[in-house]
């Protein structure tokens, strides 16, 4: 079973070498590595050359494109993929030893699954480790979709999942979404295909200030594009569309918390008001209400 690793990178040369080494050191050999450079201006190409010398028996398919964002980079990488399954990695993350063999074995045992995922461990810049084991999934695709968009499915994120190559014939990463593009993509896969969680851990996620995961400006820019990409009435049932309001409310609350943490209290209050307007019952969530009231005293 051949696996295609697709790794987009943008000025992450200082992380990329560690990511690639974690792939090349796996105890499973039937894979290809596709690195899509999204217009980097750092030492990325030098890193590629150096690690290619360190692992001369390994081949890196290197693609350079003008800066267009990680979704376009992933889609371009997938277009080159020849494997039965695609494994998308972020350039600042790394595989845990034995990860590929674990996931290949799971795919062989569960041929009905078009998506398989496992857990991850996150490490911040101070060395603190938080483990996120994978949540179990059932056979009800609508329920899996609901739980995932409401953050009830742990473990499924960029870097922990194998996706059957054919799924990309219908579903692509959304180029118009700046952050949370993985949520948009995986929600569409979950609502269409069977998925399986695999016990254990396959990925180390490196949390750092430069990560897009913490870019508030990008989160705001994504805004309703994220919601509209997930909730397309031409693709979802009425029941599935019914979760839009709840998801939108959670999105507003996420932005409320992000702005509150960064002491941008006026903006935080604006998102809290939007959440309450969307679902008035939120006013009874005391943890949010306390933060809202505290924001006036800062």
TrEMBL record:
InterPro entries: Glyco_trans_2-like (IPR001173), Glycosyltransf_2 (IPR050834), Nucleotide-diphossugar_trans (IPR029044)
Record keyword Lipoprotein present: no
Keyword Ubl conjugation: no
Coiled coil: none
GO molecular function terms attached to this record: transferase activity
CDD domains: Glyco_tranf_GTA_type
Keyword annotations of the record: Transferase
Domain of life from the UniProt record: Bacteria
Domain Glycosyltransferase 2-like: 4-169
Any matching Pfam family: Glycos_transf_2
Gene3D superfamilies xrefs: Spore Coat Polysaccharide Biosynthesis Protein SpsA, Chain A
Name this polypeptide is given: Glycosyltransferase involved in cell wall biosynthesis
Organism: Desulfosalsimonas propionicica
């Amino acid at each position: 079973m051949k696996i295609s690793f697709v790794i987009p990178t943008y000025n992450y040369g200082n992380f990329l070498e560690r990511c690639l080494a974690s792939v090349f050191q796996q105890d499973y050999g039937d894979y290809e590595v596709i690195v899509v450079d999204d217009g980097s201006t750092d030492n990325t190409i030098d890193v590629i050359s150096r690690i290619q010398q360190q692992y001369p028996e390994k081949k890196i398919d290197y693609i350079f494109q003008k800066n267009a964002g990680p979704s376009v980079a992933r889609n371009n990488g997938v277009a080159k993929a020849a494997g039965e399954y695609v494994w998308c990695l972020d350039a600042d993350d790394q595989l845990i030893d034995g990860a590929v063999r674990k996931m290949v074995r799971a795919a062989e045992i569960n041929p009905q699954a078009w998506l398989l995922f496992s857990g991850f461990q996150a490490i911040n810049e101070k060395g603190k480790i938080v483990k996120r084991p994978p949540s179990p999934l059932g056979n009800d695709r609508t329920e899996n979709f609901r739980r995932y968009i409401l953050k009830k499915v742990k473990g499924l994120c960029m870097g922990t999942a194998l996706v059957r190559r054919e799924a990309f014939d219908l579903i692509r990463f959304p180029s118009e979404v700046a952050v949370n593009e993985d949520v948009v993509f995986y929600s569409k896969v979950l609502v269409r295909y069977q998925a399986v969680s695999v016990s254990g851990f396959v990925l180390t996620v490196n949390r750092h200030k430069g990560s897009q995961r913490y870019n508030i400006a990008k989160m705001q820019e994504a805004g309703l594009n994220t919601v509209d990409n997930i909730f397309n009435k031409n693709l979802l049932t009425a029941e599935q569309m019914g979760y839009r309001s709840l998801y939108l409310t959670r999105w507003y609350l996420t932005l409320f918390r992000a702005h509150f943490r960064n002491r941008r209290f006026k903006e935080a209050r604006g998102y809290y008001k939007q959440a309450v307007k969307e679902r008035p019952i939120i006013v009874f969530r005391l943890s949010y209400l306390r933060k809202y009231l505290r924001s006036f005293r800062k």
